[in-house]
Amino acid sequence: MKPKALRKPLISGNWKMNFSHLEAINIVQKFSYGLGVSDPSRVDITLHPPFTALRSVQTVIDADDLPISLGAQDVHWEKSGAFTGEVSAEMLAKLNVSYVIVGHSERRQYFGETDEMVAKKAAAVHAFSMTPIVCVGETLEERDGGDTEGKVLGQLRAGLGLLDADQIARSVIAYEPIWAIGTGRTATPEDAQKVCASIRSAVAADHGAAAGASLRVQYGGSVKAANIEALMAQPDIDGALVGGASLDPAELADIVGRAASAR
Ligand code: PGA
Question: What is the reported pTM?
Answer without folding.
Answer: 0.97
